[in-house]
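pasting input
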Amino acid sequence: MRKKILAANWKMNLTHTEAEAYLSALVSEIGEVNDVEIVIIPPFTAIPALALASAKTQFIRLGAQNMHWEKSGAFTGEISAGMLRALYVKYVIIGHSERRLLFGETDELVNRKIQAALNTGLRPIFCVGETLSERDAGKEQEILERQLREGLKTVSPKDFSELVVAYEPVWAIGTGRTATPLQAQEAHAFIRSVLASLSDQGVAERVRIQYGGSVKPENALEIMRQKDVDGALIGGASLDPRTFAQCIRGTEAALE
Ligand code: PGA
C-alpha cells in the first residue's frame, strides 16, 4: 500500500515570514493528518523558518525546489544536497519542467542531481512530462520513457523506493487545463511499466507517482481516486493554505 503524498510547490512565492503564517494557518485548517504525507516546498529562503516550525508539527515534511549535484565548490548561486539535509529537508524536486525549459536542465543534469540527492539521503521528486506539441504528435510515451531512462540511468533499483516520480504534463502546469483522470491514470500506469522494466514489478509497485498540473480542490478527489495516482504536486492552488487544505481533504476522501 503506497501512502499518498501531497506536495505544495510554492515556486518563487512567499517570504519567510509569510511562510510561517501559512504554516500556522494550514495546521489550524487541517489539524493532524496521518493517512496522507504532506510536504511543503518553499523557496530556499523560507526553509530555515519552516524547519523550526514544521519540527513541532511532526507530520509536515519539508522539501526544496532544486539543488546542485556537487557537494561544494565554486558554483555561485547554487545550493548543495548537504546544505538542505542540514536544515531537515527530506525531499527535493528535480527536473521540474520550468527548470528544464527556462534554465536549460537536460536529462543528463537531472540524472546527476537525482544521484547526488540519493547519495546524500534526500528523496528526489523526479518530474517528467510531455509538452503539448509532443502530446499532439502522439509522442508522450516516448518522451516519458526517455526522461525516466536517462534520469535514472545510474540509479540502482534498490534505491527506487526512495523516489517519488511526478507526472507533470507541461500543458497542464499553471494553465488551468488538467489532464482528465483517465489521461493521468494512463500516463501513470505507463510510467510504472517503465520503472518495472528498469527494475522489476515489485519494486515499481512501491514507487509513488504524483500527478501535477492545475490540481485544485474541484478536481483533487477524482484524480486521487485513480489506481496509479499516489498523490499530487500542487503549484498555484497550494499558495493559499485554505485551498491546499481542501486538496488534502479531497485526497483523504479518495482513500475512503
Ligand atoms: P500548478 O503547478 O499546480 O500551478 O499547475 C504544478 C507544478 O508546476 O508543480
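fyi The chain has a mean pLDDT of 96.
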